[in-house]
Amino acid sequence: MTRPSNSKIEQYYFEQFRRDYPLPEGDVDFTDKPDVIVRADCTLGVEITNLYIVAGSDPASEQVQRRRREKVLERAHTAFLAEGGKKFELSVDFDPLKPIEELEPLARALTSLAHQLETAETGQVSSLLFEHIEALRFMYLNAKEYSDPRWRLTQGFSVPSLSVERLREIVVEKTAKLSEYQACDRYWLLIVVDLMDPAQDQELVWSSTASLGASPYEKVLLYKPQYRQVLEVPL
């Protein structure tokens, strides 16, 4: 399945947002820099971005680790079948606190572990069998054989508190680009927290002791679409 373009994703978020938060009456144009312009007596520019818990440039970020987990499972499963392994299915949970650094050693360890399970029955795999593999947290075996077996991620996550420092970083980054925007009378920064993405999901609760500081944006708005929750960050 082809991933929607960034502009399509931004339009999707904005259409939900305008349902949940009052906007000035006017014509809406989806543009670039800013992403949306509401043309009324005073033009309003709305820039849209997502709040990731950790920047995607960090190797330990969920954005990076998710891809690494998928590659490890794919390589391990391919090697296992090439070695004549049974066509059973595995569900695997990796420990987010033990980021994957090297793919091949972990893939080989998973392949070796899978061979140990060829005579096992359906059920949760004892952690004693993989205590030497630090990155693993949970494994479930479906011992039934299939023509097209799957090894899949069953990743579990806890929902952390709002990452105020990351929010500050994003506001600073977007403020630095404000001079490149089309001219508007005022600007809002709409920051989406999509709970369907574990790399973003966090509680939208603003501490009374936290401060974002001054901003050229008239409003900085945090938005969790699935809950229809909008938090206006104090400036």
Describe this entry's structure for a reader:
It is a single chain. Helix 2 (62-82) crosses helix 3 (103-116). The two termini are 41 Å apart. The protein folds into two domains: 6-53 and 160-232; 62-153, no CATH class. The mean pLDDT is 93. The chain has 235 residues and is of the alpha/beta class. A hairpin with a 5-residue loop joins strand 1 and strand 2 (36-39). The strands form two sheets. The chain has a six-stranded mixed beta sheet with strand order 1-2-3-8-9-10, with helices on one face. Strands 5-6-4-7 form a four-stranded mixed beta sheet, covered by helices on one side. The chain has four helices and ten strands, in the order H-E-E-E-H-E-H-E-E-E-H-E-E-E.
**What is the CA-based Rg, rounded?**
23 Å
State the shape. Answer: elongated
Distance between the termini: 41 Å
Q: If strands are numbered along the chain, what order do they take across the biggest sheet?
A: 1-2-3-8-9-10
Helical segment count: 4
Mean pLDDT, all residues: 93
Secondary-structure element series: HEEEHEHEEEHEEE
| Class from helix and strand fractions | alpha/beta
Specify the helix fraction band: 25-40%
- Structure summary, number of beta strands: 10
Percent of residues in β-strands: 15-25%
